[in-house]
Amino acid sequence: xxxxxxxxxxxxxxxxxxxxxxxxxxxxxxxxxxxxxxxxxxxxxxxxxxxxxxxxxxxxxxxxxxxxxxxxxxxxxxxxxxxxxxxxxxxxxxxxxxxxxxxxxxxxxxxxxxxxxxxxxxxxxxxxxxxxxxxxxxxxxxxxxxxxxxxxxxxxxxxxxxxxxxxxxxxxxxxxxxxxxxxxxxxxxxxxxxxxxxxxxxxxxxxxxxxxxxxxxxxxxxxxxxxxxxxxxxxxxxxxxxxxxxxxxxxxxxxxxxxxxxxxxxxxx
Length: 269
What we know:
Blueprint: H1 5-13, H2 19-31, E1 37-39, H3 40-48, H4 54-66, E2 70-75, E3 78-83, H5 85-98, E4 110-114, E5 124-125, E6 128-132, E7 144-148, H6 155-161, H7 164-183, H8 189-209, H9 227-246
Antiparallel strand pairs: 1-3, 2-3, 4-6, 4-7, 5-6
């Protein structure tokens, strides 16, 4: 059985893959730490491993160029793509959020508030949003807010707090993590690089869509450490084999990539 089959099936369960978004994931996770330029050969080999056809990739790259995300240049038969300055600027805040360290302690102070521009993915009950108030992050404006400790949270109330879309996203993330727990140590380089793309792509979509859930608000079906800590552990487990693929140690027919920056290994730390 293909070791990536569960991850690929999970991606397809979200609907038709948005190839341009997968390309952005690859840039943020693997290309930017290696100088910011990647060949179409690398992208085709990597995304082809998860079932993305060459024509769909070409269409996605054309869209990204048209929208100002990337620029391209040719060298012989190969095209090389680089993020534009505008594309790089869009990356900064998202990258910091995606690869931030896991929270070490449960929140002690909370805010329950009536937010005029409610986030549909934020935990809420009867129109009141519940958020940690001691994370250091900016809280949204509120028409009404109370701060204090969270002394009780019954399971049925916790279930009502979570939007169906957020529950589905967490369930699929957990499925990916469980699949990787059984296979990541044995994956060959290309498979590890592709698995890391799929993991980061799912995590990226989750953390950029809505607020990150602290442990007390996670659904009862979530087991073990926090989602961020679990993703970090899986990401670092995939890193040696995935990086060997990017370094050209397994596919000699691909053009060499620059060495990754030291900051790559410090992600999630």
